[in-house]
Amino acid sequence: MILRLQKCAACAVFAIPFAFFSTSAGAQNTDTDVPPVIDVHVHAMDESFPGGGPMCPNTPKFTASDPKTKEAPFGWSQEECTPKLYPAAKGEYLKDMAAEMKRLNVTAVVFGDPASVKKWEEAMPGHVIPGTSFGNGMQAGKRVALDELRKDFTTGGFKVMGEIGLQYEGLSPSDPSVDQYFALAEELDIPVAIHMGTGGSGRANVAMGKYRASMGNPLLLEELLARHPKLRVQVMHAGYPMMDNMLALLQENSHVYVDVAGLIWSYPLKEVNRYIERLVDAGFEDRVMFGTDQMEWPKLMAYSISVIQNADYLTPEQKRDILYNNAARFLRLDQKTAK
Ligand SMILES: [Zn+2]
Known about the structure:
This protein is of the alpha/beta class. It folds into two domains: 1-32, no CATH class; 37-335, Alpha-Beta Barrel (TIM Barrel). Helix content is 37%, strand content 11%. An eight-stranded parallel beta sheet has the order 1-2-3-4-5-6-7-8. Strand 2, helix 4 (114-123) and strand 3 (128-132) form a beta-alpha-beta unit. Residues 1-22 have low confidence and may be disordered. Bound molecules: zinc ion (ZN). Zinc ion (ZN) binds at residues 163, 195, 236-237, 262. Residues 163, 195, 236-237, 262 line the site of zinc ion.
């Protein structure tokens, strides 16, 4: 090709299109396979979150407010962006998510009450790893009975205990009142997924009276892990923004993984990348798992994958580890103990 160009300028006119079509075979610079992705943090909604509208991801600011005024429940600044992420039309969310997950080759850990998770399994067979917990978005302090939860995991096919949202109740994961559930997870060798970190949305004081940032401190897991040394823990939202404590816990306990869900699209992009890069630079590239916290906008999954895909500080191998391999190891997919 290069030789022909050097010899004859006129030949090049014909040579370039010929070479393009002969090597492309319908694809530009990759083949048509889509590498698999695991999203370890999806919520089993069957509609886009009620009352939600379009969203510009990675807000650049959390704005101040005056308690004398009527304050919005979120501090995210108003933005314009292209493309915006839109909620699904009424009745279309599950269908849209099934199409997106198929297109992107995503398998997701889907959390919720058993009936809601079943709807996802029916809507996209083979793409759902079912998860449920003792809270399931019920009123604060309300718990699923221990025996019922045991059945979910022993005969109901559930594989992960989560999302455990004790921080929204102002409770530590080491609180003795919930220890029986963690003892069950350890006994059954079920990984637990615990919300730690994000959730303030810049204005938790307005919208979530019981939420405590201090209860998202990853070191609060220390007592729990000492009591249950075999427990496998997914720290949801990577304990953001308590990086130093997160690293200390990862140094201390190699059964602890993190997910980047929520964090990846709801904080300033530079900050998100800095946080993920720090986890990797500190030596924990085999513990970071991709997740979205998907609950409203069907295109959020593709957007969030692109944040990892475009991270120039990650090698291609590190991207695959975060998007798939680390979760497959944590969930023991390679050992066929989960779907
Ligand atoms: Zn969460």
